[in-house]
Amino acid sequence: MDAEGQKNHLKAYGITFWTLEKQQKVKWLLNYKGGSFLLPDFEEIRKECQIRGVSFEVISDAKAESILQEISSPSQNMEAVVLEKAPKIAVYTPYGKQPWDDAVTMVLTYAEIPYDTIYDEEVLNDALLLYDWLHLHHEDFTGQYGKFYRSYRSAPWYIKEKKAAEELAEKLGYSKVSEAKLDVALKIRDYVVGGGFMFAMCSATDSFDIALSAEGIDICEPMFDGDGSDANYQSKIDYSKTFAFTDFILERSPNVYEFSSIDMTQKRRIPKTTDYFTLMDFSAKWDPIPTMLNQNHTALVKGFMGQTTSFSRDEIKSKVLVLGENKTNGEAKYIHGIKGKGFFTFYGGHDPEDYTHRVGDPKTELDLHPTSPGYRLILNNVLFPAARKKKQKT
User: How far apart are CA 206 and CA 229, in angstroms?
Assistant: First the structure.
C-alpha cells in the first residue's frame, strides 16, 4: 500500500472488506509499506484483485513470518492489527440523494463496500442498533437548512428540500424540523456512547455538536422555523454536551453561510496551490487507533474546501485527538475522540478530490483518483471497527 507498489489504493480496501466477508481474518500491517494488508493466499482472492485492478504480491509463509517479526521489533514503529469481521455500515443520508452527493457513499461504491442508507425515521426507530459504523451525510442538525437561505432561498431545489424536511418532521410527530433533528442527534449520541463508531464530514461535524449543545434552546430565526429564536441564546449553550467542540460562538445571521466560529472557511488565507494538511505521527504499538486512522502512502494530503472546511484549534476539546492539521493556519482538518464506549471521527471538507465543490458541480470520477490519500482516510475509518480490540496498556 505504498506509493510505488499499489496502483489502486481505494479498491484495495474493498478487497480487504470482501475477504472479511468471506469469514477470513486479515492482518493490517500498520506503517509497513504504507499500511499494507496481509491476506490469506487463496486463488479466489488473487482473481478478485486482478478483476478489480488491485496490485498484490504473493509471498511465502517464511517471508510473511519474517515481515511479522520485523514489525514486532521494539525498534520499529509498526504493528500488526488483526481485522476479524466486516463491519455492518449505515450511511445517514436524505432520501433520493445520489452516491456522488457525498464523498463517503462515493468511495464506498467505488471500493465495492456494501452499505445501507438510513434517515430520520429509521434512526428514531432504533435502526442504528443493527450497525457497527455510521456515516453522517453533509447534514444540518440545527434545522437551519444548511444556512443556504441568502443564496438559494428562491431556488427550486431549496424550496423542495425545505418542504420535504417539514413534511417528514410532521409525519414523525414534530412541529419543527429543528426538534426532529435534535432527537435524531440525541439518538446518534446514544449510539456512540453505547459503543458505535461514527464518522462525519463537512457540515455534519459542527452542526451535530451545535445541536447537542443547544438542546432545549431555540437558535433558529423565523425564516427557518416560523418563530423567533430565544433571547440571548448564546449564553445558554451547554458545551459539556458536545463531542468535540467548546467555547464556540454561533452565527446568528441567517444571511451568513456559516454555523459558528468552529469552521475556518472564512478565516483561511491559504492559496489552493499550497493548501495541504499534515498527518500526525503516532506510536503504532502504543497508539494503534490513531495510527490505524492515519495509514497512508504520504503524510502530506491536499486540502479541500466545504461548508465546514476545517476546525479552529482553539475550539477543540483537550481530550480530542488531532489526526491531521494545517499548523500555519491554526486549523485541524481531521480529529478523533472517544465518547462513552464508542468512537467518533470528524473530517472537514466536502470532497478530497474536488477543491471547491459547489452546488450543482459534476461528480468526481474516482477512476481518475484511485490512489487518493484524502479518500484513504475515509476508508481507514471504515475498516477501523473490524480490528480486534486490545486490552489497554496500564
Answer: 19
Indicate the domain borders of the chain: 9-83, 89-386
d(C-alpha 242, C-alpha 233), whole Å: 16
Q: In angstroms, rounded to a whole number, what is the distance separating the alpha carbons of residues 104 and 111?
A: 10
The H or E element that residue 380 is part of is: helix 373-383
194 residue type, one letter = G
Grid coordinates given for 101: 452527493
* Residue 297 to residue 33: CA distance in whole angstroms: 8
Q: What is the DSSP string of 38-107?
A: E----HHHHHHHHHHT-------HHHHHHHHHHHHSTTSS-EEEEE-SPPPEEEE--TT--GGGSHHHHH
Cell reading at 39: 491476506
Query: Which amino acid type is present at position 279?
Result: L
Are 40 and 18 in contact by the 8 Å Cβ rule? The answer is no
107, exposed or middle or buried, with CB in 10 Å at 0-12, 13-18, 19+?
A: buried
Question: What pLDDT digit, counting tens, does each position of 198-230 carry?
Answer: 999 999 999 999 999 999 999 999 999 999 999
Q: What confidence tens digit (pLDDT) does each residue in 46-86 have?
A: 999 999 999 999 999 999 999 999 999 999 999 999 999 99
Identify whether the C-beta of residue 319 lies closer than 8 Å to the C-beta of residue 337.
yes
What is the band of 98 on the pLDDT scale with cuts at 50, 70, 90? low
Q: Which CATH number fits domain 89-386: 3.20.20.120, 1.10.10.10, 3.40.50.880, 3.10.20.30?
A: 3.40.50.880
